[in-house]
Write a structure and sequence with these properties.
Low-confidence stretches: 1-21, 26-40, 135-144
Strand content: 25-35%
Radius of gyration: 54 Å
Shape: elongated
Strand order of the largest sheet: 14-13-18-17-16-15
Number of helices: 20
Structural class: alpha+beta
Mean pLDDT: 80
Distance between the termini: 176 Å
């Protein structure tokens, strides 16, 4: 019973079913019919790039801000929504790549859903912001659908939905649309058959597989599907087929395709590299097994991972023994008999990054067999420069050491003989005073261990106021050179006593040497002069030797001229020419070997210029001081040591000397 506006009673008759229907209509208007969203105001959405510039908005966002889309595009989002807390959340989402939800600081009834936009390479290129009413179920429903669509559209995997009854496409995301070839590339695929849309699957039995999944309701996964793409050639995919039950109770198939071309190619490349590495390792092992030297390879912890047969034979290892156990029982001794410290072993030094070559020590195995080894080791580095192992090469040099010791004993014996012979044959480095002449001699071997050289000199008293002066050079050192020096010196001395003419002495000596030296292979230069101590007249002959220098004090320096005759012992029948020169009072005659002029540092020779420079500044009065000073100047130019033997003969003529 009810009343109308005039307060008249009105009778309304309704059954229970009508009342329930009315209540359901009221509820549907308020909350929406279950299973079907009501017509409601959509959520406002906006897309931002990495710099927070607006790149897209929907109509709801335009309506909420009261600004047209054309005016919003390009503006910075913080200018539209000046909320510092929200801006901080946006920056964090862009940095971390994680979606988040927050309540607006301006209106607590609104929620912000921030979702990063990720491209196919996995890089974040922007954000999607959705504003919704937190208390409205429809908004939540719409937000979920929108977010899911955004995620599906931006994931790098290709996703499509296929009708399970007809194998026709229902929808596909952007990645799937980019996958297909023309004419359907980047176009709507709804209604197209799977063969039309993806012809590359035509020969793979893909359509039958889709029907099977739809009929059975069982998912299917194939991690390595090969497809021939017209544009890309052979491609590889990880395919997942997932059955989906629709609202009508039918079964659709969700296709998820992941491009695994890079993974497959990388796997194949790695397999090829492994094969190449194994092949090279086998080749290296074959090579190391075939060489005569012992080889041991260590890992980073110092454990032996490879030992070739030559090393086992060198150590006398039984087949039942391991290298580590056997070498631990061996003794390593220096040549002085002291144990070699473990940290000083070449292998240990190589594991610290050091390259070691030709370290020698004595190695004694457990059975008492002793050998002398030369050990070299090198570190093995990885791509980052870290030491990951070491190689150790051993060589048995026992025979070589024995031979070297025998040669050293033989050399020492020969050296002693030559030294004694030279001391007996070459006059001592004394001062000679003959009439008006004062003569000094100086000799310097190149090295202390090679004191027997090929340079020689002599001072011969010929009587009647005459003195013979001899200086020369024979190629070579040692006992053979000493014997040659003896024969030349005594030949010249003997011929000078018979006939003091320098021409006759040199010619006769040359004939004698040519008969002794049949192949004429030894180079021998010599300068022989006869000085008259009373008059200062010098008569001389030169057989290819450095011409002497006459020094008259200060810058008065000249070189004795001579006809370029052959060295001794080369050609028979040569008549050597004589030349004459007269010394003035206090003139000094300086004869030397090429050990002085060829003293060098690098490619810079001391030369005759060095001799002239020394004499121009020399203030010495005695010939022995001149000889010593010239030798020291040449040695200083060569850095303290000469590269060849050197001999100097200095004669000073002073007419007043005899009167004293």
């Amino acid at each position: 019973m009810a009343k109308d506006s005039d307060a008249k009673p009105v009778l309304i008759v309704c059954n229970k079913e009508s009342i329930q229907k009315c209540r359901l209509n009221e509820r549907a208007e308020r909350l929406g019919t279950p299973g079907k969203p009501p017509v409601a105001k959509p959520c406002s959405m906006v897309h931002l790039n990495k710099d927070f510039h607006i790149i897209w908005v929907n109509e709801a966002f335009e309506h909420e801000t009261g600004i047209r889309a054309k005016q919003l595009i390009g503006r910075i989002f913080p200018e539209v929504y000046p909320d510092s807390e929200l801006h901080s959340i946006l920056r964090n989402a862009l940095a971390t790549g994680r979606a988040c939800r927050t309540t607006s600081g301006n209106t607590k009834s609104c929620s912000w859903i921030i979702t990063p936009l990720i491209n196919r390479t996995g890089r974040i290129h922007g954000l999607t912001i959705t504003q919704t009413d937190s208390h409205t179920p429809y908004h939540t429903y719409s937000l979920q659908n929108s977010s899911m669509q955004i995620i599906i559209d931006h994931v790098p995997m290709a996703i499509a939905l296929v009708d399970g009854r007809t194998n026709r496409m229902k929808c596909a995301n952007l990645a799937y649309q980019n996958l297909v070839s023309e004419p359907y590339r980047n176009k709507d695929c709804a209604g197209l058959s799977i063969h039309e849309y993806c012809p590359q699957f035509a020969e793979t039995g893909f359509d039958e597989l889709l029907m099977t999944v739809a009929a059975s309701g069982v998912p299917y996964v194939d991690p390595d599907v090969q497809c021939q793409n017209p544009a890309r050639g052979l491609t590889f995919w990880h395919i997942s087929l997932i059955p989906i039950i629709t609202a009508e109770g039918m079964v659709d198939v969700l296709i998820v395709a992941v491009d695994v071309n890079e993974q497959v190619r990388s796997r194949k490349h790695i397999e090829e590299l492994i094969d190449q590495t194994e092949q090279r390792a086998a080749e290296m092992e074959s090579f190391l097994s075939s060489i005569a030297d012992g080889v041991v390879i260590y890992n980073a912890e110092g454990e032996a991972v490879f030992v070739n047969d030559a090393m086992r034979d060198m150590l006398g290892m039984p087949a039942t023994e391991t290298y580590s156990d056997w070498i631990r029982r061996c003794q390593r001794l220096t040549f002085e008999g002291k144990p070699v410290k473990r940290e000083e072993l070449p292998s240990r030094r190589a594991l610290k990054g050091e390259t070691v070559q030709d370290v020698r020590y004595r190695l004694s195995n457990p059975w008492g067999r002793q050998i002398v080894v030369s050990c070299s080791a090198s570190p093995v580095f990885d791509r980052d420069g870290c030491v990951i192992g070491a190689t150790n090469v051993f060589r048995d040099i026992s025979e070589r050491i024995d031979l070297e010791q025998a040669k050293q004993k033989l050399y020492e014996r020969e050296h002693r003989i030559a030294e004694i012979l030279q001391q007996a044959l070459i006059p001592p480095q004394d001062i000679y005073e003959l009439g008006n002449c004062r003569i000094a001699l100086k000799y310097q071997p190149a090295l202390n261990e090679a004191e027997v050289g090929g340079d020689f000199y002599d001072v011969i008293d010929l009587g009647e106021g005459r003195v013979g002066l001899l200086i020369g050079d024979i190629a070579g050192k040692g006992l053979a050179a000493a014997i040659r020096v003896a024969s030349v010196r005594y030949a010249i001395r003997s011929y000078a006593y018979i006939n003091p003419s320098p021409s006759a002495v040199m010619s006769l000596t040359n004939e004698a040497l040519c008969r002794e030296n049949d192949d004429c292979s030894e180079l021998l230069t010599a300068y022989f002069a006869v000085a008259d101590v009373n008059t200062g007249v010098i008569t001389y002959a030169n057989a290819g030797h450095e011409p002497p220098i006459v020094w008259g004090g200060e810058s008065k320096i000249s070189e004795l001229s001579y006809t370029a005759d052959y060295p001794l012992g080369i050609n028979k029948g040569i008549i050597y020419k004589e030349s004459i020169f007269k010394l003035e009072a206090n003139d000094t005659l300086i004869a030397l070997t090429d050990g002085i002029t060829e003293a060098r540092v690098g490619s810079c020779l001391f030369g005759k210029e060095g001799v002239y420079d020394f004499l121009s500044t020399c203030r010495a009065d005695h010939p022995e001081e001149v000889a010593a000073g010239l030798l020291e100047a040449a040695r200083a130019h060569a850095g303290g040591s000469l590269q060849d033997d050197a001999a100097i003969l200095v004669l000073k003529w002073n007419p007043a000397l005899q009167n004293k």
